[in-house]
Design goal:
single chain, alpha+beta, Aminopeptidase, five-stranded mixed sheet, 4 helices, 5 strands, 30% helix, globular
Length: 141
């Protein structure tokens, strides 16, 4: 199944945040609407939506800081999963980052999300021997 990949616009906020909820990406400590708006303020051309027949069925946030690329909020509606859509989005992400000279992509995946780990491993990603450390600077509540 082929999808149309385009940049996200502000008017997509409800559709995208609903998509994230349906895919189980929303968590109590992150406000999805704030995450959406924050990304639109920073390299919105790297915030992508996947459409079929004009309907948003997938999304991904991409960042590049000159050293590493990062991917967040890769989501595909459950009824469209396992049809190659996530793979198409990641190919687009990899192409865009490669064109920017990005040497490596880092991903954060919840350790309980075994299916997603397998998805990325099938695309050639490897688990790095690192520890993810974070500190919230601005609470979303």
């Amino acid at each position: 199944m082929n999808i149309k990949i385009r940049s996200v616009v502000k008017e997509d906020i409800k559709k995208i945040t609903s998509l994230w909820g349906e895919c189980g990406l929303s968590v109590p400590w992150n406000d999805p609407e704030k995450d959406f708006l924050r990304k639109l303020d920073h390299s919105p051309d790297m915030f992508l939506a996947g459409e079929v027949g004009g309907v948003i069925i997938a999304s991904v946030m991409v960042a590049y800081d000159g050293h590493r690329g990062n991917v967040n909020y890769l989501a595909v509606l459950p009824e469209f999963q396992k049809h190659g859509i996530g793979k198409q989005l990641m190919q687009e992400v990899e192409n865009r980052l490669t064109n920017l000279g990005c040497p490596k992509i880092n991903l954060l995946i919840r350790n309980t999300n075994v299916d997603v780990v397998r998805f990325y491993e099938a695309l050639g990603y490897k688990i790095d021997p690192v520890v993810c450390v974070g500190k919230r600077l601005i609470p979303d509540d």
